[in-house]
TrEMBL record:
InterPro entries: YjiS-like. It comes from the Bacteria. This is DUF1127 domain-containing protein. Residues 17-48 form the YjiS-like domain.
Length: 70
């Protein structure tokens, strides 16, 4: 049976926190893009709005099908 490691738990929590901050920051930046930049990225304003307003803990890719909602 594996031993509990407080150091490993702290490391995992820190990594998860950094990921959450990254998703939150990225989504805020996505909402700030103008239509020309969104077109360069290859997404519509509606897609950007939908992705930008998701909770920061939800991970999603624009390449997922409509049946793979999280």
């Amino acid at each position: 049976m594996p031993r509990f490691s407080l150091t490993q738990l702290r490391y995992q929590l820190r990594c998860q926190f950094h990921s959450y901050r990254h998703y939150r920051r990225s989504r805020r930046q996505l909402l700030a893009l103008d239509d020309r930049l969104l077109e360069d990225v290859g997404i519509t304003r509606e897609q950007a709005q939908k992705e930008g307003h998701k909770a920061f803990w939800k991970h999603a890719s624009f390449k997922r099908g409509h049946h793979e909602n999280r």
